[in-house]
Design goal:
- The chain is an alpha+beta fold.
- The chain has a domain at 79-233: Ribosomal protein L5 (50s Ribosomal Protein L5, Chain: A, 2-Layer Sandwich).
- The chain contains seven helices and five strands, in the order ααααβαββαββα.
- Strands 2-3-1-5-4 form a five-stranded antiparallel beta sheet.
- Helix 4 packs across helix 6 and helix 4 (60-80) packs across helix 7.
């Protein structure tokens, strides 16, 4: 009887040991199709390093800024005999102003003007208000009568690039802008009769046709310097 019990214990212990010795089932390997997809989705580091980088096209603001440093400044130094590049004039800011007299009776007209000027410049316009009351025009001090935007740095160069290369050529029978619209201190002002010359404005979706005033403020000391500065940027002055 004792021998039978011992044999039973041995068999039980052996079964336990054999069960412990059997390793657990390993996690199922992903299917071959998934492996192939993973390889396609994640290219190797060597492939990334070997692949040539695509050249990025310079933004309009950067392109015009580089043109100023590499082309305009040397041309101005040669033309006016400056002793340093710091003496060469530069553009400080561009101010766009839209006057909406009809906003006195039609508030929606001003809303449309604000939206369109924002699309043209890429910057939120500021609503301009009347500084004094005029009884004949039913105008009271503080009433909204237009909107304006002041552009500096990157947005200034970007707008100037689009104005010269895209907007002005779309004017009907365009023969150039006036070379005499300087204020005596190198600052230039011009008027645009229709906002639809800018590609950002869809003529089918506008509420009304209106113009705007554009003032280009520079550090030039004379009109001659200001005219040369804008001319080297590509401003199409009338001859």
């Amino acid at each position: 009887m004792a021998d039978k019990k011992d044999t039973k214990k041995d068999t039980k212990g052996g079964a336990k040991n054999s069960a412990a010795a059997v390793p657990k089932k390993a996690a199922k390997a992903p299917p071959k199709a998934a492996k192939k997809d993973a390889k396609k989705a994640a290219p190797s580091a060597e492939a990334k390093a070997a692949a040539p980088a695509r050249p990025k096209e310079a933004a309009p603001a950067q392109r015009l800024r580089e043109k100023y440093l590499k082309t305009v400044v040397p041309a101005l130094i040669k033309e006016f005999s400056y002793s340093s590049s710091m003496q060469a004039p530069k553009i400080v800011k561009i101010v766009l102003n839209v006057g909406m007299g009809e906003a006195i009776t039609n508030a929606k007209a001003l809303d449309h003007a604000v939206d369109e000027l924002g699309r043209i410049t890429g910057q939120r316009p500021v609503v301009t208000r009347a500084k004094k009351s005029i009884a004949n025009y039913k105008l009271r001090e503080g009433m909204p009568i237009g909107c304006s935007v002041t552009l500096r740095r990157a947005r200034m160069y970007e707008f100037l690039d689009r104005l010269i290369s895209a907007a002005l050529p779309r004017i009907r029978d365009f023969k150039g802008v006036s070379p005499k619209s300087f204020d005596g201190r190198g600052n230039y002002s011009m008027g645009v009769k229709e906002q639809v010359i800018f590609p950002e404005i869809e003529i089918d979706k506008i509420d009304s046709i209106h113009g705007m005033d554009i003032a280009i403020v520079t550090t030039a000391k004379t009109d001659e310097e200001g005219r040369a500065l804008l001319g080297h940027f590509g401003m199409p002055f009338r001859k």
